[in-house]
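Working notes for the structural subgroup meeting. M.R. asked for a predicted model of this chain before we commit to crystallization trials. I am recording the input and output together here so anyone reviewing the notebook later can reproduce the run.

Input as submitted:
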Amino acid sequence: MDDPNNLKVAVKLVVALVAVGLAHSTRKRGAPNPMAHVVAALVVLNVVLAYAW
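Returned structure, recorded in token form:
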């Protein structure tokens, strides 16, 4: 079995941490929160990276 690729793990971890940080920092805003779309896009990007890379 191959060893895990540290670059892939690091990129996915950074994307996940940015998504969690943005979600946590903007949780007190009102209903029309544009950062929610950015967080959703980062989560989708993380899933695509896991599947395609």
